[in-house]
């Protein structure tokens, strides 16, 4: 499997976290759509099917950061 550029993954994670926080504060349709788009892109970029697994996998692929639970990451690859 090809791995996404770490800079792209880092940016996607940051955008997702920001949008998730905004969505929690205000249920805005535009924010929800952007959150869905970022979640989809994270899933495609990591070869996963749900956003929580995608986030875990993306974090695991970043240099200098590794998930405590490698079993979860291995299960989605």
Describe it.
The chain is an all-alpha fold and 77 residues long. The longest helix is centred in the N-terminal third of the chain and has 20 residues. The relative contact order is 0.16. It is elongated. The C terminus is likely disordered. α1 packs antiparallel against α2, α1 packs antiparallel against α3 and α2 crosses α3. Helix content is 71%, strand content 0%.
- By DSSP, the count of extended strands is 0
> Could you tell me the strand content as a percent range?
under 5%
**Rg from alpha-carbon coordinates:** 13 Å
- Name the poorly predicted regions: 69-77
Indicate the mean pLDDT.
85
User: In one word, what is the shape?
Assistant: elongated
Span of the ends, CA to CA: 8 Å
Number of helices: 4
SS class: mainly alpha
Which percent range fits the helix content? over 70%
Encode the helix/strand succession as letters.
Answer: HHHH
The biggest sheet, with number of strands, parallel, antiparallel or mixed sense and barrel status, is: none
Question: Gist?
Answer:
The protein has 77 residues and is mostly helical.
In terms of topology, how is this protein built?
Blueprint: H1 6-25, H2 29-46, H3 51-61, H4 70-75
Helix pairs in contact: 1-2, 1-3, 2-3
Short key terms for the protein model shown above:
mainly alpha, 77 residues, disordered C terminus, 4 helices
């Amino acid at each position: 499997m090809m791995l996404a550029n770490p800079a792209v993954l880092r940016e996607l994670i940051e955008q997702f976290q920001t949008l998730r926080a905004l969505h929690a504060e205000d249920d805005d349709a535009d924010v929800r759509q952007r959150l869905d788009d970022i979640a989809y892109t994270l899933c495609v970029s990591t070869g996963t099917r749900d956003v929580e697994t995608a986030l875990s996998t993306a974090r695991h692929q970043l240099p200098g950061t590794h998930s405590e639970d490698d079993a979860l990451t291995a299960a989605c690859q």
